[in-house]
Each structure stands twice: as structure tokens, then as C-alpha cells.
Amino acid sequence: MTVQHPRPSSAGVTVSRTCLICRTPFEPFMSLGRQPIANAFLTADAFESEFFYELRVGACPSCRMVQLAQHVDPELMFHEQYAFFSGTSKGMTLHFAEMATALRERYLGGADPFVVEIGSNDGILLQNYLGTPVRHLGVEPSANVADVARAKGIRTLSRFFDTDLAKEILGQDGQADVVTAANVMCHIPDLHSVIAGVRALLKPTGALVFEDPYLGDIVGKASYDQIYDEHAFYFSVTSLGRLFAMHDMEIVDVEPQDVHGGSMRYTVRHRGAGPVSPRVPARLQLEQQAGLDRDETYADLRRRIEASRDELVALLHRARSEGKRVVGYGATSKSTTVTNYCGITSDLVEFISDTTPIKQGKFSPGTHIPVRPYTEFEAQPPDYALLFAWNHEREILAKERSFLDGGGRFIVYVPKVGILS
């Protein structure tokens, strides 16, 4: 299918005035203001050359796909200094081990099974197939994390997945039983090229299984920090069903996942390749009831986001006026949206604690809050920890019993601004 691609606006940014899926004109329902690249943690000598763009998001009035209206060039986001490694979370390591088992049991039990992962990161999923009969191939454009995967023995290409690469893989390895992706499909503006490639690569009985942050959770929780440069789309079953129908494919199952603040796992097959789970029509009905197909839902979301911003800033100013120390917990991509949209600097948050070595000693994008090792958080516990990594809340609270027992408290802003007691 031929689609109209975003129109270049300025160096590093393209502007979409029509839906990337169906080409219908759309208007953003809100702007989260001037934003830097979410994962571009930087040193002080790079402040003056830092890249910024306007973060605007809208909902297509026709296919209902929620999407960004400006897109940062992929090469600026995914490169040899990419700062996100999936394997740093024990919870996510377990999640992907369970996902790998489910895929093997459902789709990889035949002769010479073959799985391709789009956006394979450090190999957190594919590592579970090492030493098994399952052939694998990871596709990961960020060279530094791809190198980590290769060091584990995981076959990995440092490329962006599209129709051309799918044809190369098909010629070398044959058709795949499974193509999978996790928190990746929503990153890709040219989804039509990707889906066309997946369709060609999959066996007639094969399945595309992917998971991404779920629009229903974002709307329900007003989790505006899920909106940042890497996330070109915010998926619902409604919008994805219309997208895959354009490629003669269909969603046959949906499974909610308690990761990344609320995700959905989608199983997609060639049309007619298998039965459709009753979970699919049930979820479509829930989306209609939640108003995900109505403009007024997004107008209300904008108002709730603005109120959340004002409440969080007021709470941080109050803590400062009382002489309390506040430290950020988790130098996440999501934290970039929050700090820049809310205007949070080191005047309100002393530093951000993070366990990722590549981020330590650097500064947060845009607002330039220092990022320091977790050992500094342990050595001098603050009065409050602003929980940027709220999607790992359960794991973090279990880890931080001594901080809590010592009187420390976590500030949260999803689904509501408050202090965890």
C-alpha cells in the first residue's frame, strides 16, 4: 500500500498533517511543549547543541489511530549510544522468559522453527532460545545494545526492519514461524512497510506477536509520560484492526500485560489462518465504552494531564519550601516528558538516581538534572523520591523497604499525584 509519509519540516524532524495510516487530515489534541530526545542523556559540553522539537499528539478522525504530529529522525534516537537496556530489570527479564515459553509452546513446536524479533535490544527475549532447536534472528538498529546481544551468542543484525530487509531475511533463512516485537511497533512511523515485510516473511500458519503500551491504559491513567519521541503511535485494538485489515491480516487474540504501565499483547495472523479469540470482540466493546473512538475523550485527557502537571509542580514546590530533599528515581525516557512538560529542574529535584552506567555522570535531557549512581541515593536517602520509573513500582517498593522504613516516601503522579504512605 502506498502511503503519504511525513513532510520534512526542519533538520531532524518531519511533520505529519495527515494520518500515517489512512492519510486522513488530523489536528493534534494537545502539545506537551518543547522537548528534547527522550533518551539523550548528555554531558555538560553538549548543552548548547542539544536538539529540541515540539511534542504534539493527535487522534485520526477516520481510523482512530492516536499518533505524534512531529517525528524525530530515527537515527537521532537509535544509535551506538542508545541508553536503554531491557535486561537491567529483573521483572522484565522474567516477563520475556515467560513470553518466550508461550511463543514456543504455541507456534514454535514444528520442524526447524524460526523466530525473528524486531527491535531485539540486548537479546532479553531471544536469549531464552539459546541451546534449543529454535533458530532465531534479532533485528536491532542501536549498535551498542546489539553488541551486547551478540556477546551472548544471539544472532543480531544492526538494521531497521522494513520490507527490503524482510526480503533479505526470507532469501537467506526462509519464512518465519513467528515474528515478534516488544515495545517496538509503536516506534515505527512507516508501519505499512514493516507490516508488508512481516506478511511476506511469515509462513501461512505463522503469527506476528507483539506488545506495546495500550492506549486504554494511557487514557485511563492519564499517563502522559508514555508520550515521547520514540512512541510514534498509541495503539488500540480498534485502530490496529483497521491497519492490519489493509494488509489482509487480522488480530486473532489480545492479552493485557502488566508491564510498561499497562501494555497489550497482540497476536496477528494472515486472514483466515486461525480462529479469532472472543477476547478480541470483547476488547473492542470495552474500547467503545471507554470512548476511545470519540474526540471528546481526548479533550478530557488534555484537561486531566494539565491538572496533573499543576498538582505535581505544586507538591514539589511545597516540599522545597519545607526544606525537604527530593531526588528522582529512575532516569527513564518517560521522565524526560515529565520534567520538560512540567518545568522540573534541579531546583526542585536534586538529582536522578539510576543504575544504568551509560547514564550516570550525565544530565537529563532538556532540564539538565544530574544523573547519579544509585549508591548516592543509598548513602544519603532523601525525604522524597519522585518515582519516574512508576511502571516498576512493585519491584521498586519491595527493593526499597529500608528507605521506606527510615521515613522516606515516594512521590507519584500516575494515575494521580500523591505521596505513597
**Alpha-beta content class:** alpha/beta
What radius of gyration results from the CA coordinates? 21 Å
Number of strands: 20
Distance between the termini: 53 Å
Sum up the overall morphology in one term. globular
Described by strand count, sense and barrel closure, the largest sheet is: 7 strands, mixed
Can you list the strand order of the major beta sheet? 9-8-7-10-11-14-13
Structure description:
With 421 residues, the chain is of the alpha/beta class. The chain is 32% helix and 24% strand. It contains 13 helices and 20 strands. A seven-stranded mixed β-sheet has the order 9-8-7-10-11-14-13. The protein has a six-stranded mixed β-sheet with strand order 17-16-15-18-19-20. Strands 3-4-5-12 form a four-stranded antiparallel β-sheet. Strand 4 (52-59) and strand 5 (66-68) form a beta hairpin. Helix 4 (163-173) packs parallel to helix 5 (191-201). The model is unreliable at 1-9 (pLDDT under 50).
